[in-house]
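Re: [ENG-882] Designed sequences occasionally contain unexpected residues at chain ends

Forwarding the minimal case from QA. Structure tokens:
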């Protein structure tokens, strides 16, 4: 299901294949047809995880002073990408649904700083000819 090498995660299920570079989803393909759903060029320069503060400021997670990345396999169908940084630590937990092959991505952030309003995980590069249907708990900006 998961292969990790040089900060790249390859995910394979019976229905979908995905590739992450760090926490950035750079490829999402139909496993049967090979159809690519993301246009990688549209995602350049977009931070994958962004911390939003109540005061209106924001910063990309894991890109500042003393930042690092590690990977933790929790089970054969669960992998966690862990970002550590000076201002905050975060993670992106990836779970493969064993019955359907669907992927579930759960971003989270921890910080000693007060006033964190949200953590934004950007899926940049969704092809313009596709319609997105997703359960999103804190909104969507196109």
């Amino acid at each position: 299901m998961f292969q990790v090498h040089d900060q790249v995660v390859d995910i394979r299920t019976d229905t979908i294949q995905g590739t992450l570079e760090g926490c950035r989803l750079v490829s999402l393909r139909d496993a049967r047809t090979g159809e690519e759903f993301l246009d990688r060029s549209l995602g350049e320069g977009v931070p994958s995880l962004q911390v939003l503060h109540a005061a209106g400021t924001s910063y990309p997670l894991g890109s500042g002073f003393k930042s690092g990345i590690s990977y933790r396999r929790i089970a054969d169908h669960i992998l966690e990408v862990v970002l550590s940084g000076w201002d905050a630590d975060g993670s992106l937990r990836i779970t493969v649904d064993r019955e359907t092959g669907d992927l579930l991505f759960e971003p989270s952030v921890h910080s000693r700083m007060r006033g964190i309003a949200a953590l934004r995980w950007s899926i940049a590069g969704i092809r313009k000819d596709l319609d997105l249907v997703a359960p999103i708990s804190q909104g969507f900006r196109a």
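QA comment: On inspection the terminal residues look reasonable. DSSP finds no helices and eleven strands in the chain. Proposing we downgrade this to a documentation issue.
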